[in-house]
Write a structure and sequence with these properties.
Blueprint (H helix, E strand, L loop, with lengths): L2 E5 L2 E5 L4 E7 L2 E7 L2 E5 L3 E7 L3 E10 L5 E12 L2 H7 L3 E2 L10 H21 L4 H21 L3 H4 L2 E13 L1 H125 L4 H15 L10 H14 L1
Antiparallel strand pairs: 1-2, 2-5, 3-4, 3-6, 6-9, 7-8, 8-10
């Protein structure tokens, strides 16, 4: 919509770059072009504003396939007004000089024209196509047919309209039909999912079995190695016992030999000692005998009184020390009697 300001009976219009303005006064074209800005009088001006930018027209319509099934077509048509003068001459793009608002609904007319034309060509395609084929390949076929139909429609160039692009968003059957069509696919998908689940479970079971077999094999191998270890330990213990017994036997033999040697040495020493003691005793005896014989030879010629004196002397030498002696008359009498008897 153009921007219009008022000044003392005059109006000033400022258009957008995407809006083509046509200004007539008295049947003469004074201003013609996009993005114009000019002054005019409202009572004598005839203004038209034609948009020249690309416009998107979304459309939804129903069609029937070759097997009498209803489908909904969702499409979008991109168009532009390539000839503003022709469009302004064929459609009412006039605006109010005071407000800049369209007096008619030109874009709705263009939308109706494009929608009906596109719908006509889409119906022609779908009417000869079964539902399954339409759902599978209908989007491409409908888009190509609409594009070709709009390009060959003579009314659009005569109105100054150029179709830029056509897009078909979707072809949708009725909800009940769509659910019915989805059921086999869903069942197939579910079957595939179940088969995949079963296969996964089978694989899991197989893997579990393999793991169990591996564990069992590991346990068997471990038991076998433990048996070997026990046997080896028994062999080692037996070997250690044998080696210990051999070592004990060697030690016993060595100890016995050492004991025998010590006994022999002790016996030899004892024999030598006995011989030495005997020799010493013999020598001592001989010496004592010789001394006794010499003593006897010495005293053989000595009188008895001298011998008694020597005997007393020897006796006195061998008697213990006497600090005091108490001589009683009885003891003295007996001693004197003995001495007299000897004399």
């Amino acid at each position: 919509m153009a921007d219009i300001t008022r000044r003392l009976g005059w109006r000033h219009l400022r258009g957008a770059p995407t809006a083509h303005i046509r200004h007539h006064r008295g049947g003469k074209l004074l201003h013609d072009g996009p993005g114009l800005s000019f002054w005019y009088r409202a009572l004598t001006a005839a203004l038209s504003e034609v948009p020249v930018d690309d416009r998107e027209l979304a459309m939804t319509f129903h069609a029937r396939t070759a097997d009498f099934q209803d489908v909904a077509v969702q499409a979008t048509v991109t168009y532009r007004i390539s000839d503003p003068a022709t469009a302004a001459a064929r459609l009412d793009f006039s605006i109010d000089p005071d407000t800049g608002v369209w007096r008619g609904a030109p874009l709705e007319q263009l939308g109706t024209l494009l929608t009906e034309t596109a719908q006509q060509h889409a119906l022609d395609v779908l009417a000869r196509t079964p539902l399954a084929a339409a759902l599978a390949d209908g989007v491409t076929a409908v888009r190509e047919r609409i594009t070709a139909g709009l390009a060959g429609e003579p009314r659009l160039p005569g109105t100054g309209i150029e179709v830029v692009a056509v897009r078909v968003v979707a072809l949708r059957p009725e909800p009940e039909v769509e659910r019915a069509l989805r059921t086999p696919a869903r069942e197939q998908i579910q079957q595939e999912a179940d088969r995949a689940t079963y296969e996964r479970r089978a694989v899991a079971v197989e893997r579990e079995r393999a793991i169990a077999e591996n564990e069992l094999a590991s346990q068997i191998e471990l038991a076998r190695r433990e048996e070997q270890l026990v046997d080896q330990r028994g062999t080692n213990a037996r070997r250690e016992a044998e080696e210990g017994a051999a070592a004990d036997a060697v030690r016993a033999e060595a100890e016995a030999a050492r004991t025998v040697q010590l006994a022999e040495a002790e016996a030899t020493r004892s024999v030598r000692l006995a011989r030495a003691e005997a020799e010493g005793a013999r020598e001592i005896g001989e010496a004592r005998a010789q001394a006794q014989a010499a003593w006897l030879r010495v005293h053989a010629d000595v009188d008895v009184a001298t011998l008694h004196a020597l005997t007393g002397t020897r006796l006195a030498e061998n008697l213990p020390r006497i600090d005091s002696v108490t001589v009683t008359p009885d003891l003295l009498t007996g001693l004197l009697s003995r001495l007299g008897a000897r004399e």
